[in-house]
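[agent] plan:
  1. take the single chain provided in the ticket
  2. run structure prediction with default settings
  3. attach C-alpha cells to the ticket
  4. add a short note for the reviewer (M.T.)
[agent] executing step 1
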Amino acid sequence: MKSTILITGGTGYIGSHAAVELMQAGCNVVVLDNLCNSDVRVIERLKNICGNAPQFVNGDVRDSALLDKVFALHPINAVMHFAGLKSVGESWQQAAHYLDNNVGGTACLVAAMERADVRRLVFSSSATVYGQPDTVPILETAPLRTTNPYGRSKLLCEDMLRELQAVDSRWQVALLRYFNPVGAHASGLIGENPTGVPNNLMPYIAQVASGRHPFLRVFGNDYPTIDGTGIRDYIHVVDLAQGHLAALRYLEQVEKGITVNLGTGSGVSVLQLVDAFKQATGMEIPYQIYPRRPGDVASCYAATDLALEALSWRALLPIEVMCADAWRWEQSIKNAVDHD
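[agent] step 2 finished; step 3 output follows
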C-alpha cells in the first residue's frame, strides 16, 4: 500500500495505533490533532516504533481553512476519522459540546473531503449506537438507539455518512463500531493516557495498581449478569487498529461502503477483568461498589461474523495480553512522571 492517509485524532489512543499499522503497511501518514486529550510526543514515539514519523498538523477538524490547506499540500487518498470526544459520563454534562465537536467536526471534515475530491473514509463509530441491546451478541442489523449523548453524537455522524453514500455513490465509508478498546502497543511507547481521571475501565485499573488511585469504582453490581457487574467486549487496541487497515483495504478493493462491528465476540464482566489483571500482573486491585451510571447497559458484546467474512479480520490477542500490555504502558507513564 503506497497511499497517503489522513488520520484525524492521530496522536490519540486508537489513532496512534492505527498510524503504526498504516506506516508499517507502507502508507504515508498525515496526522491532524488539536492535542486536547493527547500529547505531541506521540509523534516521536511513532518514529521510534516505525523508523519514521508521520507528518503532523496541530489543528482542529472543525477548522475548514486548515483542512483545505492539508488536502492541498498532501496527495491524500483516504481519511481515518478518530477526532472526537468519547466520555459517556462527560457527555451528560456537556451535550452541546459533544454535538459541536463530534457531529460538527465530522460535517466539516466531509465537506472538506468533498472539496478535495476525496471520498474514501474509515469512521470511528461505537457500539453505543446499539443502546440497550435486545440480544447479545449484537449483529450489525440490530436496532439503533442510544442511551447517552455521546452515543447520540456517534449515531448522528453515522446517519450523515449513510446519507452521503445514499445520494452519491462515489462515497465509500466504513462505519466501524468499536466495542471496548484496551491494552497498548507491545513496545510500551504508546497507549491510553487520558487527562485527569480515566473514564474507561482498564486505564483506571492500571492506575489503581500503580498507586495513582486508592481503589477502583465499580458502577453497579446488580445487573442481570454473572456477577452483577457490567459485561463488555474488550478488544486489544492493536487488533482494533489492524481492523482499520482491513477496512481500508476493503474500501479500496470493493469500492463500496460497509458497516461492521470490531470486537472479540465474547463478554467479560468488570470483576472478571479485575481478576484477569491480577492474574496477568500479580497486582491486587481494591474496589468499591457505586450506584449505576446513567446510560450504562448490562451486557454488550459483538457478533463478529461479518468482520471475518467481509474484512478477513478477527481479534487475536487474549485478555491476558491486554492486561499485561496495559500494565507495561502504565509503568512507563509512571516512570516518566517520576523522572520529570
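[agent] step 4 note for reviewer: Residues 61 and 339 are 34 Å apart (CA to CA).
[agent] ticket updated
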